[in-house]
Amino acid sequence: MTTTICFTNNKGGSGKSTSCAAVGTALALMGRRVLLVDGDMQMNLSLSFFDEDTVLQYAVNDHNIYHAVKNEKDLKPYILKTGTEGLDIIVSSTLMSSVEMELFTKWQRETILKNLLKNTVSGGEYDYILIDAPPTLGTWAVNILTASDRVIIPVEASPWGLFGLANMFDFLHQVQGISPDTKLLGVLVTKVDERKNYYRQTMETLEGLEEIHVFDQVIHVDSAVEWAQDASQTVVTYKRSSRSAKEYMALAAEIDALCEE
Questions:
Q1: pTM for the full model?
Q2: 166 is in which domain, residue-wise?
Q3: Measured by CB atoms within 10 angstroms of the end CB, which terminus of the chain is less buried, N or C?
């Protein structure tokens, strides 16, 4: 069985792409077979595995998610190997900025991505497909959620971190009208600094939400993440001994356990 999980938040700066990349890497190191799909025009997920020149080259040719969606092509031929065994990726493109316009003219446009992933999912080659969604609530985001079994919402522990979270919940509820099997796996708290009151306020607010799972593992602020990004790596492979790498390994184990329930 392949479980498809998207990382999404309509607010930028939540650690969404970083978490998607790190969790995917951690799951692969645990022996799971993982496919990452970069659905964000910022291409940060792609940049976690390839240098900028390589990513930009993929972005302008026809071997990216935009080309597949535009031409409604099966996604299997677009899969690339990363430097981590058991971890593959489909890269994004700057042209994703016009994907809403491309989808507007298509029949059953809310389920295009789900259909393009169908052969990959049914083939059982992967234990997990992780999708990095853009910080928007448009038709492309609907596509990503509709294609997903589970949803993870990263939230930054900051004064504005929870801003728009209610809109995200409402959006997910609307998508569930199209795709009832799409479920919220949980809210992930990122960029934690326990010296600041923001963290306690964030946790108190989230714990007050009924029927919303908050992951036990949180992700602290760690300079190793930025150094890893500069090296076009995830922190899990860049510095396995770092605090955030250990936290992402623990988070991956928590996600894996929840998906097996």
A1: 0.96
A2: 3-253
A3: C
